Amino acid sequence: MITGMDRLVAALKGEMLDRIPVFCNMSDQGARELGMAPREYFSRGEHVAEAQLRMLAKYGYDNVWSLFYVGKEAELLGCKKILYAGEGSPNVEDFVIKTWDDVEKLAVPDELSAHPAFVEELKCLNLLRAGVGGKNPLCAYITATMTLPALLMGMERWMELLLLGPAEVRDELLARCHAFFVKEVAAYRKAGADVLIYSNPFGSTDMIPMKYFIDHSLPWIEKDIKAAGSQGMVYYCGMARFNRVIDAVFERTGIGVYYISPLDDVAEAKRIVAGRGLTCGVINDIKLIDWSKEEITSEVKRIIEAGMPGGRFLFGTGVMPFAIPEENIRTMLDAAYRFGSRGARAA
Amino acid sequence: MLEDIIAAYNEAIFDTDRDRALKVVHDAELRGVSPEDIVFRVVLPAMDLMVKSISENLDANLAQHFMTAQIADTVTAEMIAKFKKAPEVRGRVVIGTASGDLHSLGKRIVIGCLKARMIDVRDLGVNVPPERFVDEAVKHHAEVIGISAMMVHTARGENGCLRVRELLKERGLENKIRIIAGGAPFRFDRELYKAIRADAWAEDAVTAGKVIVELIQEVRS
């Protein structure tokens, strides 16, 4: 029987087995799957792993996610307060960095795997790894050095520090975030993560001008990937567009997988990647909340028809809001399996 | 002379170079340009140019929006203090992030842009309950309530814009106060503002300033 891992490995080699790989991020849906409140659900790695494995079996997509919520990284760096929501992702409520003086106090844990906030993630990863037994790619989410400060001080303060300085505080903070990033990648790899989603909205020209990207952001991306290695890394900008930087990122880092924005042109991304790596066409999953069955099917078809020719393509979702009805998730996945099948390509 | 100043200021804004933009403004002052002309003929047109470049899908991005608002806010505050007479307030706005939402960047950009447009704006902060939006709007005679939401569940949540609309209706205020919503989910679903019963939305925070002025004019007409 063909597995999700088989499909991914084939796609990486430019081949196709029964269909293209289909990646789905169902973090917000886990609590509902177990009938729990989010606070209870996210309190234990066992809960997250069980829900992810149940949904994998239920929907049949190809990957499993170890992500609890993005603010988890802030907890590893000292955040004590998370704001839980009934129908959405938890958020950082209390920022670790409130003044520039706090930057010097920011401590990167010596041993990440011993940190209480990481213990539950490790439990989850171990259970997922055992549960899929190598048959499905195990995905972990890692915030890039350039973006991590936003979780520690809020996007507003980070934008202010980034663009207005003081430069020495900014550089010190980035150096500490980079040290954390390198440890986090190592910890996830050691725990068995196959795919590392390198999340970096500051790697998109929707966030910063191209010149600023080249002068400031790209050097940190290069430093991150040089230190951590490009194996299993997926370039992702948190749903922001990045077709314009793919060439530069590929040349400077060798990252081989590009998880583009739903607002990017899929065919253009494929042309830019030009067979050097894998392109993931991503659906605008916010629209999945209200789209009709026909609209969902048509959009999946459009994305796959634009990206599948020439191979080295997969279909994926963004953060899949909690409010998406289950039948719409099924409609999307059924369409992806159908239009992404080997038969569909031949036709 | 003014054309050169405008061009130099715009270039600095698009390069996200605050120091250069402020130098252009201060040099202009030294060359005899009035504080009123600096605000109304340099800063505001630069903001409108940013709105135009966004609408034409040119290379405008969040960092440029942030710097546009930041510099406009700084320059306007500095120049207003030097105006021959206090400028006329063009409208009043209360703004905050939706209940459960802690993302403040978009709100800050909108506030900077509104101040430069001579709008009196009250910042209600983050995670604002719907009742407070309405109470503060009434208290400050605001024509517009601005609700920023960066997450789908805060944009669509029952304690966000939907509840603000209900409260306006219950209190008979719908003809006096308009609601504008904004934030990332609205860019991915351009009809979302209708689903949450806002009167308008804006693609980005700089454009929001322009849309809010239009809403104020609508209420006042």
Structure in words:
The complex is a heterodimer of chains A (347) and B (221). By secondary structure, chain A is an alpha/beta fold. Chain A has one domain: Alpha-Beta Barrel (TIM Barrel), CATH 3.20.20. Helices cover 49% and strands 12% of the residues of chain A. Chain A contains 16 helices and ten strands. In chain A, the strands form two sheets. Chain A has an eight-stranded parallel beta sheet with strand order 1-10-9-8-7-6-5-2, sandwiched between helices. In chain A, strands 3-4 form a two-stranded antiparallel ribbon. Chain A is globular, with a radius of gyration of 19 Å. In chain A, 53% of the residues are buried. By secondary structure, chain B is α/β, with parallel strands linked by helices. Chain B has two domains: 2-80, Methyltransferase, Methionine Synthase (B12-binding Domains), Chain A, domain 1; 91-220, Rossmann fold (3-Layer(aba) Sandwich), CATH 3.40.50.280. Chain B is built from eleven helices and five strands, in the order ααααβαβαβααβααβα. Chain B has helices at residues 2-14, 18-30, 35-55, 62-80, 105-116, 130-139, 152-156, 161-170, 184-188, 192-195, 205-220, and strands at 91-97, 119-123, 144-148, 178-182, 200-201. Chain B has a five-stranded parallel beta sheet, sandwiched between helices. Chain B is globular. The chains are: A alpha/beta (347), B alpha/beta (221).
What key attributes describe this structure?
heterodimer, A: 347 residues, alpha/beta, two-stranded antiparallel ribbon, 10 strands, 49% helix, B: 221 residues, Methyltransferase, Methionine Synthase (B12-binding Domains), Chain A, domain 1, Rossmann fold, 2 domains, 11 helices
